[in-house]
Specification:
Number of domains: 4
Mean pLDDT: 81
Distance between the termini: 96 Å
Number of helices: 18
CATH architecture of the largest domain: 3-Layer(aba) Sandwich
Number of strands: 18
Shape: elongated
CATH superfamily of the largest domain: P-loop containing nucleotide triphosphate hydrolases
Largest sheet: 7 strands, antiparallel
Radius of gyration: 32 Å
Structural class: alpha/beta
Length: 500
């Protein structure tokens, strides 16, 4: 039996060995080495306590074969662990108690050793006596522990608990630092982009109706799906929803799902651990963590690969996700706004977009009409663009001539508001007078994309033949051989109403 002086030296050695370890893997290896100096153990496991779920998780285990694995979550309530932790001291369990208490703690079962083993459970507490983790070690049947050895293990547990607490605090500081860095980057982007947009300028009843939906959506944290053609300003409407929401003080984090290579989308959204793949030299915080408490805007959601649709659905359902290469389940509370210019209902019918994800996204669907269906907005938008671009290019231009404005209003704008801004920018650059003349806008007459024009006429004909009845055997949906919900979506997209 070791003397008191030998135990003191051992305790000092343990303290010195653990005090500088802040990475989970290296700290775990050091704890394992120290415990094996004290006990003839076959397997050792350490599980971190999650107070939010009252379970032990995020642990690791080491068998005599050297295999490191993740620990399955173990509930605290209703198990022998609850009594051991309440007592606050190391405790030895029999083989039957091990099976009862740690039946799910499968990584402690040493594949090279006997199936029935004893186990010593060591609670680990922090400075404020809050439970941090438990260490568990399997022991051969012929290795009893006396009272002095158990008391010494309690003293060792104090040092291990302090080391685990330091590691957890260090990891949290790293996470917060990374999040602050990314928050700062996104906030700078928000400030820069806020200076470059004209704001929501409109005179049409169509956009007034959209703004009414936007205001109602902003009052809740429900998921919003913005639908509309390219260039209609979906991102601007997303910004407006965020700015009017309760989380406006948090950043609006945006990502274009179609602009990220498919192999990097998961890492971008959920983050990755160091070494998760080639080039992952550091831990990366994903956008769901960055946007926690705020808004995440997923543009071009229709471009999301099928495997990522499943993972996104899980986050929308319960807020849980895991970083690439990690085992820790993280939780986030994010207000999600998605946008698409693709016919997403048709994608659902074709099986290229998950129906369950679509219904999760389209809690509040908002359809943004194209510019050709709200020509009354063109003068206001064009004037605002002229003022902004004239300041940018230091031109003394003051207005658009009446002939030029009529020409703009007679044009169909297949590229919508974005095309209008580009046309104004080109005209401002070329203009040498105080007024933008019609000659700076060499445009054809009003035109609507042929595909939309044909589809619009087909739907109008079916509606008129059905006396504008949509559902039922005599409805237009039956004549067109599509679902009533699909017909209503097409009517909204093409701006069809009974007054059409």
């Amino acid at each position: 039996m070791a003397t008191a002086e030998e135990r003191h030296r051992r305790l000092l050695a343990i303290t010195n060995a653990l005090i500088t370890e802040v990475e989970p893997a290296s700290l775990f290896r050091s704890i394992v080495a120290q415990l094996r100096e004290l006990l003839p153990v076959a397997s050792i496991g350490i599980a971190i306590y999650d107070g939010g779920t009252a379970t032990f998780r995020r642990g690791m285990a080491l068998t005599s074969a050297g295999a490191m694995q993740s620990v399955e979550p173990i509930p605290l309530k209703g198990t022998l662990l609850e009594g051991i932790i309440a007592g606050g001291h190391a405790s030895v369990l029999s083989a039957d108690q091990v099976e009862q208490t740690l039946g799910r703690f499968v990584s402690l079962q040493d594949p090279g050793g006997p199936s029935r083993v004893r186990c010593v459970i060591i609670p680990l507490f922090g400075r404020a006596s809050n439970l941090l983790a438990v260490a568990a070690a399997t022991l051969p049947a012929a290795a009893p522990l006396d009272t002095e050895e158990l008391e010494f293990l309690d003293r060792v547990a104090t040092q291990i608990g302090l080391a685990v607490e330091n590691m957890l605090l260090y990891q949290e500081n790293v996470r917060l630092r990374l999040q602050l860095e990314q928050d700062g980057r996104y906030l700078r982007e928000e400030i820069n982009e806020a200076c470059d947009v004209s704001g929501l300028i409109y005179a049409s009843s169509a956009i007034a109706d959209v703004m009414s939906q936007v205001r109602k959506a902003a009052e809740t944290d429900a998921t919003v799906l913005l639908m509309g053609e390219t260039g209609t300003g979906k991102e601007l409407f997303a910004r407006t929803i965020h700015a009017q929401s309760r989380t406006a003080g948090r950043p609006l984090v945006k990502v274009n799902c179609g602009a990220i290579p498919s192999g990097l989308i998961e890492s971008t959204l959920f983050g990755h651990e160091k070494g998760a793949f080639t080039g992952a030299v550091n831990r990366h915080i994903g956008l769901f963590e960055v946007a926690d408490g705020g808004t995440l805007f997923l543009d071009e959601i229709g471009e999301l690969p099928a495997d990522m649709q499943v993972k996104l659905l899980r986050v929308l359902q319960d807020g849980d996700f895991t970083r690439v290469g990690g085992t820790e389940t993280l939780h986030t509370h994010v207000r999600l706004i998605a946008a698409t210019n693709r016919p997403i209902e048709q994608m659902v019918e074709a099986g290229t977009f998950r129906a369950d994800l679509y219904y999760r996204l389209a809690v509040i669907p908002i359809l943004i009409p194209p510019l050709r269906e709200r020509a009354e907005d063109i003068p206001l938008l064009a004037t605002a663009f002229v003022q902004k671009l004239a300041r940018r290019f230091h031109k003394p231009i003051r207005q658009i001539s009446p002939d030029a404005m009529r020409r703009l209003q007679s044009y169909g704008f297949p590229g919508n508001v974005r095309e209008l801004e580009n046309l104004i920018e080109r005209a401002v650059v070329l203009c040498d007078t105080l007024e933008l003349g019609a000659e700076l806008f060499p445009l054809p007459g009003r035109r609507t994309p042929a595909r939309h024009a044909d589809e619009r006429q087909t739907i109008l004909s079916a509606l008129e033949a059905s006396n504008w009845i949509i559902e039922g055997n005599r409805g237009a949906a039956r004549k067109l051989d599509i679902k009533p919900s699909t017909l209503r979506g097409k009517m909204g997209k093409l701006g069809i109403s009974r007054k059409s």
